[in-house]
Amino acid sequence: MAVYTRLGAEEMAGIIAAFDVGTLISAKGIAEGVSNSNWLIETEQDGTGRRFILTIYESRTEVAELPFFLDLLDHLAARGAPVPRTMHDTTGASHRLHRTAEGDKALALIEFLPGVSVSEPTPGQAEAVGGALAQIHLAAADFPGTRANTMALPAWQQLLKDCGREGLESLHPDLGTLVERELAQLAQSWPTDLPRGVIHADLFPDNVLMLGEKVTGLIDFYFACTDLFAYDVAVTHAAWCFGADGSRFDPALSEALLRGYMAVRPMSESERRALPLLARGAALRFLATRAYDWLNTPADALVTPKDPMAFARRLQFYADPANADLFAQKMPV
Amino acid sequence: MAVYTRLGAEEMAGIIAAFDVGTLISAKGIAEGVSNSNWLIETEQDGTGRRFILTIYESRTEVAELPFFLDLLDHLAARGAPVPRTMHDTTGASHRLHRTAEGDKALALIEFLPGVSVSEPTPGQAEAVGGALAQIHLAAADFPGTRANTMALPAWQQLLKDCGREGLESLHPDLGTLVERELAQLAQSWPTDLPRGVIHADLFPDNVLMLGEKVTGLIDFYFACTDLFAYDVAVTHAAWCFGADGSRFDPALSEALLRGYMAVRPMSESERRALPLLARGAALRFLATRAYDWLNTPADALVTPKDPMAFARRLQFYADPANADLFAQKMPV
């Protein structure tokens, strides 16, 4: 939640003029995104108001990866998936470099979509999100780009190693043991032969715009990569089916999310069998980044780190043998 | 630049439902305002999109003063001044109390106006701002509310006393002497018999929305009060006619701003004679608050304090006898 780059109105008008989207009418810095600067932009073109999100990419996003993310949006939008399309500039480019006091930064102008992010989803909303996730899995089938998952098992191992056993135990006395056990089991059993393709990999409620029970936009594809579809289902399950603190698992949300997904893209028997393990991986993935950020964020930082224990609780839930048949429920296919 | 209060989508929809403005379509926290939380809200009503700014008042704004600020907006807007009007809730109230984890907070829903804030104004823009300032001075003539200026001379004296001579000299070795001399002269000579009424008192470029050379909105009236009109002209002059760091006085901007004001509300001879002194007061007012904030903001604060020296430079400029005839130029009346 930040606007890192400061832009005067004249500079903003110059940026917008490079796109054939009309005249700048309004620009408000918005408190979204952790690592980029974002503005809600309004222009007027041929008497019609148009709206966009302008993103300036700060250091965490590699410019070399932008074509993957931005072309993916265009590809998915063209196939009717609820994602914002990228505006191309008058030369046809999907992103531009902009000179700032801190050096050149990449920027992109992306379609504004209506909708709000829910914080207490209903089963109807979870079902719609499951369906939208399956929709992007299918729509990306003929997308030519690929991108390795930089937040896969080796990254978790490294992040958790950097936290150190002592660091983890400073968060909770049992966390070192839990992490060690889970890392070992996941490293031994992680599946590699399941269907794969482009996944979102970070589909938290914050990254879904909804109106009522309709998904109006999936956003923030900056973790999108090529990996197991069922892992994306597991990530979304971990993100949607618990209270924010990782307690209060909601079986109705779980059932609805899976039903919504399966209605659009039925999972194979082996995908379904892998879900419990994949869900442990998903929980460990966010535990790893959150624990690392928690232990390495300076006290005076602008961004408050998120509680890693919220994902330790999910991990324990998924690893608990009492919940072994969580994903084994009868699902309409 | 901050959003202090967190609101879930469901909570936001509940807030909006208390106003007869249609269904919530979008809500983006915006990085505006130093002491309040603000969202750009979109609703749909009878098939038409509508936009608003939702403000939640954090501790610095006294709820008891909100009727003055909000009624003033309605009064000015009704008289054609370019200010946003306040949406009243279904019971007719201009503001509501909202329960949050940190206790009840006041909120208001205010009309969204197009426009961007310029950072390098042209003379044409300065002239338009002068005209808009005069327009609100005239339009408020029959506004029944009054509010003392809590940021007048006694407040500057107190803030600068709290900074201490040592504190001021830590900002610049000459600042203690400059402040002492100016405070003494202003206390002795501050005029009391000039025309007065409702003034904005903080009309920096950030608080003016423009499209080209047209003023589309004057915003952020939370320092508005009853005081000398000519002092408001002096504040606006200090805010618009220099580079951000207080150097590079621009005589063309100065001339245009005053011309624009005088074209709508001609100043009397005594107001014009008082302007040099009032401008020293305006510069000292922002020097006082900025120096206080600079010396009292914890290093880990979310808000970066603004450089007080930018107003020390303006103060020196206005106090320099070489600039004595700055406001004495021939102005079309």
CATH class of the largest domain in chain A: Alpha Beta
CATH superfamily of the largest domain in chain A: Aminoglycoside phosphotransferase (APH), C-terminal lobe
Helix content of chain A: 40-55%
The CATH topology of the largest domain in chain A: Aminoglycoside 3'-phosphotransferase, Chain: A, domain 2
Q: How much of the polypeptide of chain A forms β-strand, as a percent range?
A: 15-25%
Report the total helices of chain A: 9
Please identify, by name, the CATH architecture of the largest domain in chain A.
Answer: Alpha-Beta Complex
| Integer average pLDDT of chain A | 93
Ranges of chain A with pLDDT <50 over ≥5 residues?
A: none
Total DSSP E strands of chain A: 10
Q: Please give the oligomerization state of what you see.
A: homodimer
Tell me the overall shape of chain A.
Answer: globular
Domain unit count of chain A: 2
Q: Which structural class do the helices and strands of chain A define?
A: alpha+beta
Radius of gyration of chain A: 20 Å
Family (chains A, B): Belongs to the pseudomonas-type ThrB family.
Catalytic activity (chains A, B): L-homoserine + ATP = O-phospho-L-homoserine + ADP + H(+)
InterPro entries (chains A, B): Aminoglycoside_PTrfase (IPR002575), Homoserine_kinase_II (IPR005280), Kinase-like_dom_sf (IPR011009), Pseudomonas-type_ThrB (IPR050249)
GO molecular function (chains A, B): kinase activity
